[in-house]
Amino acid sequence: MGGLTASAGQLRRPGPVRRVRAAVDSEWIKLRSVRGTWYALLTAAALMLLDSTVVCASINARWASLGSAAQLDFDPAARSLQGILLTQIFCGVTGVLVVGNEYSSGLIRTTLAATPQRGLLLAAKAVPLAVLSWVAGTAICFVSFLLGQAMLSGPAPHVSLGDPGALRAVLGGGTYLMLAALLGMGLAVIVRSTAAAVGALFGLLLILPILVGGLPHSLALDIGQYLPSSAGESMWHVVGAQGMLSPGAGCGVLVLFVAAVTAMATLRLRRSDA
To answer: Which domain does 207 fall in, by range?
Structure first.
């Protein structure tokens, strides 16, 4: 009878697929129920659309006064997506909130009790975050691109989604924002503090490029192109600039960087209690 009881218990134990699905569903519910997630994404959208409108309208109004070099190197797609430089922080903050809120509230203990497999837990948090941030980021990039090109409909050159590189740039922008969100989540797991993770994200994406830019020119170009923000910037440019990687290489560098941070986060989660 004891053997039958043990066998019945094993039969009732959920399988791997069911456990993964349950973990992902649980994290999705938590992600969409946090108001900060939607505030960050709405702020990101508002800033990027405002930036696209103002920047592209300004360029169109003073196009004739721009130098020949600036006109020759002009990248209409990248200009309409320039707001990514601000939006990346808010998408990264969305990733930070996925973990930071749980550590600040103590809910992480309940989460770890429900899903003790640390690798599964991190993956379950990453999947809905990646999907939400990619869909939202790509939608924002599409609208920003269309709005920016509408502002460039005068003397300044403009492009459509069917022009070479334009659609790739828009999709690259959405992918970059998704990777920024995953980067924020990884940093939050490592430092276990919302404020510290936001500070680290800000320093990594915005302050570090400024510091590297202060180095001698050739050294700044050699190092700067491999920074996360610089590598990611190549993903939403059509016309490459000096010291900028190709879109594929830039995406590869950024993916490797995010993967390294995620691996460190996984190790931290496995070796330390809540």
So the answer is: 16-271
